[in-house]
Design a protein that fits this description.
This protein is an alpha+beta fold. Helices cover 39% and strands 11% of the residues. Helix 1 packs across helix 3.
């Protein structure tokens, strides 16, 4: 296992764990735009748009650094 502090990324032979990036916007929007997920969460908007994903990802690193949330 390797931890890259500068990118906050963990890499193993089979897996890479990293923070969400702007390149993930479309995938996040597609995954979150699901009524079954929405009805089981408190704060997820529905329908979930690309703009919602963009906004969430932009705050992701700040929330992580401030120990406010981990996803």
């Amino acid at each position: 296992m390797k931890y890259d502090e500068s990118n906050k990324m963990i890499t193993t032979e089979r897996l890479v764990i990293r923070l969400f990036q702007e390149s993930d916007v479309v995938n996040v929007a597609n995954l979150c735009n699901n009524y079954n997920i929405y009805k089981n969460t408190l704060y997820l908007p529905y329908p979930y748009s690309v703009d919602d994903a963009k906004s969430w990802i932009q705050n992701h690193l700040e929330n992580y650094n401030n120990e406010m949330s981990y996803h």
